[in-house]
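Lab meeting minutes (informal)
Scribe: AK
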Amino acid sequence: MTAPTTRAPDPARGLPGPGEGPLRTGTPGELLRTHTAPDGGELTLRVLDPDADLDVLHAWVSRPWARFWGLGGLTRSALRDLYAHVGSLPTHHAFLVRWDAEPVALLQTYEPAHDPVADAYVVRPGDVGAHFLLGGRGPRGTRLWDALGPLVVGFCLDDPRADRVVVEPDTANDRAHARMRTLGFEVAAPVRVGDKDALLAFLTRERARPLLDAAAAAVRR
């Protein structure tokens, strides 16, 4: 993940100030969204709790397949402090997704105008930045992204002011590239974000319509 920052946007471009963008959040552990999974199970999205969720977080970021997340070398204490800091920002938020109470994914959203990615492209009002770490496999025999796609995209575009999801995975992260294409993202260009060579991609509300329709059918809350 890219280290979060806050910065002042160019007012001439009509970009929102810190915390004024189309992002949802809440208090640590708060339930924000519940979906019915394709297998009939329950998917939930809650605000990350840096204390209660620390065991899950540390186990995930320490695994070899999470190397692109860039936090594998952190101690438990440092990881907890990092996510407590993220939770204190008005522009960056973190959430834990569970499938039938089992943790499966970490989602982070952010306001691109207040993030290093703003140096890599022209931010538009309505842009929602997202990072995604897949930590679990979900129940056997299920197509994980048939469930997670509508949940994640539906949540990112939940605010009617949100018009486009922005992602920038590492250029070497082939799994993330395949996942974003499966969800309908369009690749824009290779860019430099902080100290990372990344692949910039966008998913507009219009292109996300099938996922949003699936989310509307699955949502319980």
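Next up, CB showed the second protein from the same session:
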Amino acid sequence: MAAEWQTAVAEARGAIGFTGEVVPRTVDGIGAALRLDHRADFYTELGALADSGAFEAFLNHWWTQALADSAPEGDAREQAINFADVAVSLYARAAGGPTSTQAEINALVTGAEAS
């Protein structure tokens, strides 16, 4: 899994042109990069995880938040979020996990039906 993650990060970095710092996708790395107001939620959610299947989704979500929190404001923050989205999507595809189209993601966000 680590090899798939590193490949996904490298591909996403190239696709987005991201030059910022990449937060390690570990509990310690994410926890250290989060703003204080997010850190408590992160550790609370970590303590409430019931199964290992949810751990990957947990890491993906909080890794994206950690990248956003550690990036400067403005365009650099947007680029960090875009980079994280692409890296997580590439990793999900490489690991054989579920993937969604942009229309499906938009529908989930808005509560509408995907077309």
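CB comment: The helical segments are 2-16, 27-33, 36-48, 53-70, 75-94, 102-110.
No objections, moving on.
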